[in-house]
Amino acid sequence: MNFLSDRLNSLSPSETLAMSQKSNELKAQGFDVINLSVGEPDFTTPEHIKEAAKKAVDNNFSFYSPVPGYMELRKAICAKLKSENNLEYKPEQIVVSGGAKQSVCNVILSVVGPGDEVIIPAPYWVSYIEMVKLAEGKNIIVSAGFDQEFKMTPAQLEAAITPKTKALILCSPSNPTGSVYTKEELKGLADVLAKYPQIVIISDEIYEHINYVGGHESIAQFENLRDRVVIVNGVSKGYAMTGWRIGFIAAPQWLASACNKLQSQYTSGPCSVAQKAAEAAYTGDQSCVAEMRTAFERRRDLMVKLGKEIPGFKVNVPQGAFYLFPECSYYFGKSYNGKTIKDSNDLAIWLLEESHVACVGGGAFGAPDCIRFSYAAADEQLIEAMRRIKETLSKLQ
Ligand code: PMP
Ligand code: GLU
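That is the input. Now the predicted structure with glutamic acid docked in place:
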């Protein structure tokens, strides 16, 4: 007997989290596993942020917070949007949630209904398509490959639009490719979107602070789209706060109200103590963000260099986030000890078993020829991981 709903049965588990769990299981068995699967900074949360959380506990921030988050935090987010992004938002337009993941899902559940089409450029972050399935919408995948720096062109966007298009999901800097859209590229997409007023634009900017090419550009800067662009962001990546689970949307009022209503029935406001920590992140000294970004850039350079030394890998130079996403189809069809590698998911599992390095096959990101390595790990670990991978891959015939 299958008691589960069709909606649940159609859902796939998160591949990034699944690979990380497999890696932790092997570690627990005593294997020396290097985990480059899940995307989270290896840094610990900065001290002043932890202090703010401790103070919040002592000051009895133990009650329900307002559903969209504390006013102080929403004001701090508005101040951040003004000073860093030159965007004006009122606190009523901000909804704080249990991570950017919940923020994206709130928006999708608020605007996407059965049969609605959502345009998602591939490679994409694993969870978007599953969230659209949850909303019973239809994913329209636009492939943007290696040769176009994994970025969708305005012409591709326009060709994918139909009368049923309800939303577009953009992610820049991108997980998994590290690509960053320039202002001119965003303007090109915005000009197309201006012609189709029924489309909501979801702009996932969670990697805003991990950008190696200069200032962050948001599609929300184009005034003519402001009544239907929603920014998703949060503290997880830029402030090394993945476990605190705080993300937010900055949205037109109609959409913020909808997400507020949804959240009121679903989770209530996010964790009170974590909100006080996030407030300290946005209002405190920002030098920790720059320091971590600098370390990620050094590791990016290291990974590009080591990746290029692996025969058969086609490596681009990621401009943001903390992932290397090489094309690895050279190895498909090759075998070792009776095991044949069919695709990149096979390759990821095999690398975990043979070299004890965990990464994620590109299939889950809509790019089955690629494989993702998170380089949010110590330099020595990255060097050792890439050494093992090179050696292990050389066994494939
Ligand atoms: N968007 C992207 C592109 C991500 O990589 C992640 C990381 N899981 C999220 C959203 C979700 O972030 P959070 O941990 O704040 O839920
Ligand atoms: N965003 C991270 C990743 O892609 C975290 C895992 C997840 O939430 O899926 O690995």
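Residues 287-308 form the longest helix (22 residues).
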